[in-house]
């Protein structure tokens, strides 16, 4: 993961609304949340 990768405010707000139960996400929003979570995972090292 690069040092400059950050969650956008739109994704952060959406995640907050979903977790608090204020909003049911659409399929497109679920994909955006999943992509944001996967982007923030550390890169895997090479296996030898």
Question: How would you sum up this structure, described in words?
Answer:
- This protein has helices spanning 9-20, 27-39.
- It is mainly α.
- The chain has one domain.
- The longest helix has 13 residues, at 27-39.
- The model has no long low-confidence stretch (mean pLDDT 82).
Compact summary:
By secondary structure, this protein is mostly helical. Helices cover 52% and strands 0% of the residues. It has one domain (1-48).
Strand content: under 5%
End-to-end distance: 20 Å
What is the overall pLDDT average?
A: 82
Poorly predicted ranges: none
Shape verdict? elongated
How many domains, in number, for the residues?
A: 1
Order of helical and strand elements: HH
Helix content: 40-55%
Present the secondary structure layout.
Blueprint: H1 9-20, H2 27-39
Task: Name its key features.
about 50 residues, mainly alpha, single chain, 2 helices
